[in-house]
Amino acid sequence: MRSQDGLGIQGRQRELQERIKRLIIDQRLPPGAALPTESELMERLGVSRNSVREALKALQAMGIVEIRHGFGTYVGAMSLAPMTEGLSFRTVAGHYRGEDSLLQLLQLREAIETGLMARVVAGSRERSAELSALVAQMREEAAEGEVRAETDRAFHAALYAGLGNGLLSEVLDAFWDAFHRVRTDLAEPLQDPMTTWRQHAEILAALEAGDAHRAEQAVRRHFDNVRERLRSTAPEVSTQTPHFDDASVTSVSPIPPQRS
Ligand SMILES: [Zn+2]
């Protein structure tokens, strides 16, 4: 059905969502700030309560607003969680259709991480102690048989945190999440934990030597290794049951996180 303004119901909903987003921008509302009440929005935007509610629900699904029942509506955290969700789902669905979706995601991470190494090396001096501590911790964990994924993640996060680009850190975090939330046959064979430690120690050594080229090579070798493990489980149209390591999707037992 088309109204006089020529927009269908969906078009009008979409337009309403845009107007609410515009209101957040115009009023410079930060995450966590309260939005005008439902009644105020109805009056200001000249639409029905139902339309306002529907628009807010759609914006909540995108993480743009947060509806706290009984309290009101607030500007959302604007996190990349919805992107991570979509990326994880797309990757696992693609993998089980026989596409090399995990490899593609890995290539994306590799391109970004290696591409940044020159700048990381230039500004890594003040993070050297933190990175050293993480590498030492990896060594201890490796001696005990397994480098924890959290330690690995903390190392990569510390590398790029020095660049002071919040968006970059969040995007890399989202890629990591998506990659590690996908559980596949990739779980085997696990990398020798001493190799994991050595590869990170080499990245650190290159940083400490201020050698951007060597650092880039070290990161590339680190990714080569993950890639090899991915190749050893080259995708075919799989008949296996896909797993998310997310209890809300399937109630499988806890899945060991992958290292990279
Ligand atoms: Zn790593």
UniProtKB/TrEMBL annotation:
Residues 232-260 are annotated as: Disordered. Keywords: DNA-binding, Transcription, Transcription regulation. InterPro entries: GntR_C, TF_FadR/GntR_C, Tscrpt_reg_HTH_GntR, WH-like_DNA-bd_sf, WH_DNA-bd_sf. GO terms for molecular function: DNA binding; DNA-binding transcription factor activity. The keyword Transcription applies. It comes from the Bacteria. Residues 10-78 form the HTH gntR-type domain. Residues 235-253 have a biased composition (Polar residues). Pfam families: FCD, GntR. The keyword Iron does not apply. This is Transcriptional regulator. It comes from Streptomyces cacaoi.
